[in-house]
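Query protein
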Amino acid sequence: MLAEALTAAAVGGGMAVVQAAGSDTWAWFRTRCARLVGRGDSAREAEALERLDRTAAVLAAAEEGERERVRAVHAVLWQGEFASLMESLGEEERERLIEQLTLLVGEFGNSGAPSGGALSGNTFHGPTAVQTGDHNRQENHFGSGG
Protein backbone atom coordinates (compact mmCIF):
# COMPACT_ATOMS: atom_id res chain seq x y z
CA MET A 1 0.00 0.00 0.00
CA LEU A 2 2.80 2.43 0.86
CA ALA A 3 4.58 1.61 -2.41
CA GLU A 4 1.39 2.41 -4.33
CA ALA A 5 0.97 5.72 -2.47
CA LEU A 6 4.63 6.57 -3.09
CA THR A 7 4.32 5.83 -6.80
CA ALA A 8 1.05 7.73 -7.15
CA ALA A 9 2.45 10.76 -5.33
CA ALA A 10 5.66 10.72 -7.42
CA VAL A 11 3.77 10.40 -10.71
CA GLY A 12 1.36 13.16 -9.71
CA GLY A 13 4.24 15.38 -8.64
CA GLY A 14 6.04 14.92 -11.95
CA MET A 15 2.89 15.75 -13.90
CA ALA A 16 2.16 18.77 -11.73
CA VAL A 17 5.62 20.21 -12.44
CA VAL A 18 5.19 20.08 -16.21
CA GLN A 19 1.60 21.31 -16.04
CA ALA A 20 2.46 24.25 -13.81
CA ALA A 21 5.57 25.27 -15.79
CA GLY A 22 4.77 28.30 -17.92
CA SER A 23 1.35 28.80 -16.34
CA ASP A 24 0.15 31.73 -14.27
CA THR A 25 0.65 29.62 -11.14
CA TRP A 26 4.30 28.75 -11.87
CA ALA A 27 5.92 31.24 -9.45
CA TRP A 28 3.82 30.02 -6.55
CA PHE A 29 4.12 26.36 -7.53
CA ARG A 30 7.92 26.43 -7.90
CA THR A 31 8.32 28.03 -4.48
CA ARG A 32 6.08 25.47 -2.78
CA CYS A 33 7.65 22.56 -4.67
CA ALA A 34 11.21 23.69 -3.84
CA ARG A 35 10.30 24.00 -0.15
CA LEU A 36 8.88 20.50 -0.25
CA VAL A 37 11.98 19.06 -1.94
CA GLY A 38 14.34 21.10 0.26
CA ARG A 39 12.71 19.93 3.49
CA GLY A 40 14.03 22.87 5.50
CA ASP A 41 17.52 22.91 3.97
CA SER A 42 18.05 26.22 2.14
CA ALA A 43 20.81 24.80 -0.09
CA ARG A 44 18.60 21.89 -1.23
CA GLU A 45 15.74 24.33 -1.76
CA ALA A 46 17.93 26.60 -3.92
CA GLU A 47 19.08 23.58 -5.92
CA ALA A 48 15.46 22.51 -6.44
CA LEU A 49 14.57 26.03 -7.63
CA GLU A 50 17.38 25.86 -10.19
CA ARG A 51 16.20 22.47 -11.47
CA LEU A 52 12.61 23.68 -11.64
CA ASP A 53 13.70 26.76 -13.59
CA ARG A 54 15.72 24.61 -16.00
CA THR A 55 12.67 22.42 -16.56
CA ALA A 56 10.49 25.47 -17.23
CA ALA A 57 13.08 26.90 -19.64
CA VAL A 58 13.39 23.62 -21.57
CA LEU A 59 9.62 23.28 -21.81
CA ALA A 60 9.25 26.87 -23.00
CA ALA A 61 11.96 26.40 -25.65
CA ALA A 62 10.56 23.13 -27.00
CA GLU A 63 9.31 23.31 -30.55
CA GLU A 64 5.67 22.49 -31.05
CA GLY A 65 6.34 19.10 -32.64
CA GLU A 66 8.53 18.08 -29.70
CA ARG A 67 6.55 19.66 -26.88
CA GLU A 68 4.65 16.56 -25.72
CA ARG A 69 7.75 14.37 -25.78
CA VAL A 70 9.73 16.96 -23.80
CA ARG A 71 6.89 17.30 -21.29
CA ALA A 72 6.77 13.52 -20.86
CA VAL A 73 10.55 13.31 -20.34
CA HIS A 74 10.50 16.05 -17.70
CA ALA A 75 7.48 14.55 -15.96
CA VAL A 76 9.41 11.28 -15.63
CA LEU A 77 12.53 13.12 -14.42
CA TRP A 78 10.55 14.84 -11.67
CA GLN A 79 8.74 11.60 -10.87
CA GLY A 80 12.17 10.07 -10.24
CA GLU A 81 13.20 13.06 -8.15
CA PHE A 82 10.17 12.71 -5.90
CA ALA A 83 10.46 8.92 -5.68
CA SER A 84 14.17 9.11 -4.75
CA LEU A 85 13.45 11.71 -2.12
CA MET A 86 10.68 9.63 -0.57
CA GLU A 87 12.78 6.47 -0.60
CA SER A 88 15.57 8.28 1.27
CA LEU A 89 13.31 9.15 4.19
CA GLY A 90 12.19 7.25 7.25
CA GLU A 91 8.65 5.92 7.29
CA GLU A 92 7.06 8.77 9.26
CA GLU A 93 8.78 11.51 7.27
CA ARG A 94 7.97 9.70 4.01
CA GLU A 95 4.29 9.54 4.87
CA ARG A 96 4.31 13.25 5.71
CA LEU A 97 6.03 14.03 2.38
CA ILE A 98 3.53 11.89 0.46
CA GLU A 99 0.70 13.80 2.12
CA GLN A 100 2.29 17.18 1.33
CA LEU A 101 3.06 16.21 -2.27
CA THR A 102 -0.49 14.93 -2.74
CA LEU A 103 -1.82 18.27 -1.47
CA LEU A 104 0.51 20.16 -3.83
CA VAL A 105 -0.61 18.04 -6.77
CA GLY A 106 -4.25 18.54 -5.83
CA GLU A 107 -3.76 22.27 -5.69
CA PHE A 108 -1.67 22.73 -8.83
CA GLY A 109 -1.89 19.58 -10.90
CA ASN A 110 -4.58 18.82 -13.41
CA SER A 111 -5.32 15.15 -13.71
CA GLY A 112 -8.04 15.64 -16.29
CA ALA A 113 -10.37 17.27 -13.81
CA PRO A 114 -12.25 20.43 -14.75
CA SER A 115 -10.15 23.50 -14.19
CA GLY A 116 -12.77 25.41 -12.27
CA GLY A 117 -13.25 27.93 -15.05
CA ALA A 118 -9.65 29.10 -15.19
CA LEU A 119 -8.46 30.34 -18.54
CA SER A 120 -4.96 31.69 -18.89
CA GLY A 121 -2.10 32.15 -21.32
CA ASN A 122 -4.28 32.38 -24.42
CA THR A 123 -4.15 34.82 -27.30
CA PHE A 124 -7.16 35.27 -29.53
CA HIS A 125 -7.26 37.03 -32.88
CA GLY A 126 -10.74 37.49 -34.23
CA PRO A 127 -14.07 36.11 -33.05
CA THR A 128 -13.68 33.87 -30.05
CA ALA A 129 -15.99 31.81 -27.88
CA VAL A 130 -14.91 30.27 -24.59
CA GLN A 131 -16.92 27.85 -22.51
CA THR A 132 -16.10 26.34 -19.14
CA GLY A 133 -17.90 23.81 -17.02
CA ASP A 134 -19.20 20.33 -17.46
CA HIS A 135 -21.86 19.20 -19.89
CA ASN A 136 -22.71 22.70 -21.13
CA ARG A 137 -24.13 23.51 -24.51
CA GLN A 138 -22.91 26.39 -26.60
CA GLU A 139 -23.86 27.52 -30.10
CA ASN A 140 -21.75 30.13 -31.82
CA HIS A 141 -22.39 31.89 -35.09
CA PHE A 142 -19.78 34.26 -36.45
CA GLY A 143 -19.91 36.40 -39.55
CA SER A 144 -22.77 37.96 -41.49
CA GLY A 145 -24.83 34.74 -41.53
CA GLY A 146 -24.82 34.51 -37.71
Remarks:
- The CA atoms of residues 127 and 143 lie 9 Å apart.
- The chain is about 60% helix and 0% strand.
- Confidence is low (pLDDT under 50) at residues 111-117.
- Residues 67-87 form the longest helix (21 residues).
